[in-house]
Amino acid sequence: MTDPEESSRLEAERLAKIERIRVRGGEPYPWTFAGRVSTAEARAQCTGLAPGTEAAGSVRVAGRIRSIREHGQSSFLDLEDAAGSIQLFLRGEELGDRYDLALAEVDPGDIVGADGAPSVTRRGEPSIRVNSLELLAKAIHPPPDKYHGLKDPEARLRQRYVELLTSPESRVRFQGRYEILRETRRFFDAHGFMEAETAVLVPVAGGAAAEPFTTHSRYLDNDLQLRISLELPLKRLLVGGFERVYELGQVFRNEDLDTIHSPEFTLLEAYWAYADYLDMRGLVEQLYGELAAHVARRYPELPAAAGAPSLFRAPFATVDFVEALEAKMGTTGVLERSREELGALARAAGASVPEDSPAGVFLDKLFDKYVTPGLVRPTFVMDHPLATTPLAKRHRSKPGRVERFELFCGELELANAYTELNDPVEQERRFKAQAGGRAEAAYAFDADFVEALRYGMPPATGVGIGIDRAVMRLLGVSSIKEVRLFPQTRPKADAA
RNA sequence: GGGCCCGUAGCUCAGCCCGGUAGAGCAGGCGGCUCUUAACCGCAAGAUCGGGGGUUCGAAUCCCCUCGGGCCCGCCA
């Protein structure tokens, strides 16, 4: 919209101020500001003072000017930093020439440092009675409206920094996200898991049915893909002798984006040798319980966070995939139905899936249509049909099923776990059966992964958790773009 | 991919139905004001109305195309 070469008059005025500062020998972008305390600490030093009095001594605070209220020979500036904000009180009588200079040179949005006495105004507002005010970084762009903030949803995504500098609430959202990631790491570390960093660039992206991004290595002269899951490399680490491993990182799927899908998203996967999916179910239940307690403690002002502990109170509900589906459909024997029959049922339920999809796709669709919408509270869906899940071990007692659970909550999938398939012959057979179906629905055949299993992988369980969705649920955010700092947007085409 | 909605000054919005040549608040400029906190008062300034095309004597407004965004549905896990 605004050509950076062609500054608006507002920017021109601010650039002119910078020039004037330099002409009088000032520095609009100095190097540091020593001895600073946070506005929260400065505010603390004001407590207990009677209105209209000030403390002995002085403090130094620094941050962004949010608003300026000029009153002739005295003025009030609101200064904001990461810890909060505090009012600066400037008086011409004390500052002399520097009073007019400061007001002429400082605008809302500028970063400044102030030195002054902690005080409380006659109206009772904690303030710093300023002895000296120093410009630390001149802003050329004016900040958004001080009262309404930045509303334009497009600008909020494309220029997230503007939203962040304007809105403490948005900073809180991303602080909360960070803490959920940190607590998740702490949880797995505390349970003896080692964090691994596996390759992002791989010859063939596997472990899920998804369209990968592709790129090219000039040096190797071969095509590479960006990973779509963390599963296969982490299982290789189980083969290699690590018994508890996890990875928390970004994966990439070259697919549509909407409120719950982002082309890059943050995935946690954890693998645990000599344990099965019921062990993992307990671990996941505990993890969500701890995350819920954390966000409720830290963000009681967010209704979703405050309510999280009661929502995620153990034990979570448990339903059997097939029983739940048949109960909702009012039928029996879905596993005995032919692929064609299931396809017809799925289409009848309103799912538009290609007719040649494998049976597992139809079963997933039917479950989505019939059961998922009713799963408002956290619910473990157990023991999926084998056809839906090529990487899980067949169920020890239920024929035609695998040992798997998905955790749903309000239609969001919050975890997906298996007792992992570790029989290399069976794994190869299932990969090939998948490859017989539609290419888009298939898991990529990873010959080296089968080769790894041939060396022997211990019995194990694994879980995947979409961290963005967990953050959405825990903090009460409805769009995945609002929990990712820099979501993908279309490049803005130059209108010519 | 389908449907609905949005795009006007740096920011937040009005104007669009019913065509007559764009208006306010904040921010910025000038002036005033020594306790304000969405400070206040006065003056002046600020907009190729997302872009392109069409209809018309005349288009922010009506029509078509296009770009970007949001929501819903579909697809995708």
Written account of the structure:
- The chain is α+β, with helices and mostly antiparallel strands and 496 residues long.
- The protein folds into two domains: 4-143, Beta Barrel (OB fold (Dihydrolipoamide Acetyltransferase, E2P)); 164-316 and 377-494, 2-Layer Sandwich (BirA Bifunctional Protein, domain 2).
- 35% of the residues lie in helices and 23% in strands.
- The chain has 16 helices and 17 strands.
- The chain has an eight-stranded mixed β-sheet, sandwiched between helices.
- The radius of gyration is 29 Å and the shape is elongated.
- The chain binds one RNA strand of 77 nucleotides through α1, β2, β3, β4 and α5.
Low-confidence parts: 1-6
Identify the CATH architecture of the largest domain. Answer: 2-Layer Sandwich
> What is the gyration radius calculated from CA atoms?
29 Å
Q: Quick one: overall form?
A: elongated
Largest beta sheet: strand ordering:
7-11-12-17-16-15-14-13
Structural class: alpha+beta
Largest sheet: 8 strands, mixed
The total tally of domains equals 2
Number of strands: 17
Share of β-strand residues: 15-25%
Q: What name is given to the CATH topology of the largest domain?
A: BirA Bifunctional Protein, domain 2
Q: For the residues shown, what is the average pLDDT?
A: 90
CATH class of the largest domain: Alpha Beta
Short description:
With about 500 residues, this protein is α+β, with helices and mostly antiparallel strands. The chain has helices spanning about 10-25, 40-45, 90-95, 95-105, 155-160, 160-165, 170-190, 230-240, 275-300, 305-310, 320-330, 340-350, 360-370, 425-435, 445-455, 465-475, and strands at about 55, 60-70, 75-80, 85-90, 110-120, 125-135, 195, 200, 215, 220-225, 245-250, 265-275, 315-320, 380, 405-410, 410-420, 460-465.
